Amino acid sequence: MTYIHFIVNPISGNGKHNITEAFLRNSFPASEFKIEIDYTNRKKHAIELTKAAVANNPNYIVACGGDGTINEVASCLIGTTIKLGIIPVGSGNGLASNLNIPRKFEKAIEIIRKGTVSTIDVGKINEHYFFSNTGIGIDSMIIKKYEQSGKRTLIAYVKAALSSSFEFKTQETKLSFDNKEIIANPFLLFISNSNEMGYNMSLTPKASLNDGWLDMIVVPQLSFLEKMTLGYHVLRNTVEKFKKAQHTLIQDLTIEVPTATSLDAQIDGESYTIKTNSIKVSIIKNGLTVITD
């Protein structure tokens, strides 16, 4: 019998999903599956619930939510043999999209019932894990404003991006990787494990979840017209055609911002404040087992 523990974020996707206990129990026959269900009620609650679930050693822990919920659940599974399942009900759903896990609950549930698995790489930024992407450039401000808006819609995201493009101030930053050092003033400093950010947008369309590399995009300080051009390429998924975007494959990276005491970052589409001016980014190859199509 397969033992599955579900962690459900009831407010993902504006809380309009119908992932109830009755729905899940009807979807997983008791003759074949033992299931447990927990519901989150605040940010980071999924971490507590997942740690408690891990102690019971289920076969799968299934995150029912967006990229933030998935991050909280998946981060607790690193170093275990427990497999991650995903039912995507968030607004962006970048990781699920990259894994070809559909938004239709019935199809996502069918994937979980079949139990086919694959391994993916995992990114690490200081003590935090990321599975899709992270960044400390303008994207960190965009996510902060996006969260403050209280609306998880594409329009809210675009509004946050436009206001951030005027407010974001670059800082001198030292990047160390591949035995070399680069001094930059990055408008965008984005590191991706996945080929999609969410909302079908991508800065790294050629990125792979299991190639052993992280894709780094660095864009320097830009003029107003260049910012608008970059925005156009982001919406068109053609950032590789923007001449000032420098793309590098990395496995280890150190970021230092001498004038800062702390740094804002976005990690899988959630806002964080990292209380240091030095960041280490690395990759854990095949660090997570995921149920996928």
UniProtKB/TrEMBL annotation:
GO terms for molecular function: ATP binding; kinase activity; metal ion binding. It holds the Pfam family YegS_C. It comes from the Bacteria. This is DAGKc domain-containing protein. SUPFAM superfamilies: NAD kinase/diacylglycerol kinase-like (SSF111331). Keywords: ATP-binding, Kinase, Lipid biosynthesis, Lipid metabolism, Magnesium, Metal-binding, Nucleotide-binding, Phospholipid biosynthesis, Phospholipid metabolism, Transferase. One of its GO terms (biological process) is phospholipid biosynthetic process.
